[in-house]
Amino acid sequence: MRLMIFVVLGLALLAAGFYMQFAGSGVIAADRQRCQETVQNLYANSAETRNLLLSRCGEPGVVAMMDARANHMGAEEAAQSVGTANRGSIFCDLISYALIGGGIGAIGAACAPIVRGKKRAKA
Q1: Mean pLDDT of all residues in the chain?
Q2: Residues in contact with 47: Cβ distance below 8 Å, sequence separation at least 6, in sequence order
């Protein structure tokens, strides 16, 4: 019974961690669209730059940078905005990594008695 609880808990933690890491980009669709429109308007003459930035509009720091650029913020305000967005992104990454680690640990705790049992049977 205890092993089953560890396995279920481990799988739930792994699923939550991987979902946060890969499915949840941290940028809502409206922010992504606004970023893409800003990039299209500001970099209409530079295809290489436009394509690079369009592919990165799913990152909170890039969205903040484009918002700062569109609102004609000064360098200090823009840097503060981008820094704040990136800190939030890093915090979410740390939480997802912690969930994944907890899931691996729980599954490891469930498998440990099985591995120990096989070692004793060989001796």
Answers
A1: 87
A2: none
pTM value is 0.62
Could you tell me which of 38, 27, 31, 43 has the C-alpha nearest to residue 72? 38
- Classify burial at 24, counting beta carbons within 10 Å of its beta carbon; exposed 0-12, middle 13-18, buried 19 or more: exposed
Q: What is the mean pLDDT of residues 100-110?
A: 94
pLDDT one-digit tens code per residue, 47-96:
999 999 998 898 888 999 999 999 999 989 989 888 888 787 788 889 99
Tokens of 4: 């089953």
CA dihedral 115, 116, 120, 121 (to 10 degrees): -30
Q: Say how far apart CA 123 and CA 118 lie, in whole Å.
A: 9
Coil/strand/helix, residue 44 = coil
DSSP state of 26: S
In single-letter form, the type of residue at position 82 comes to V
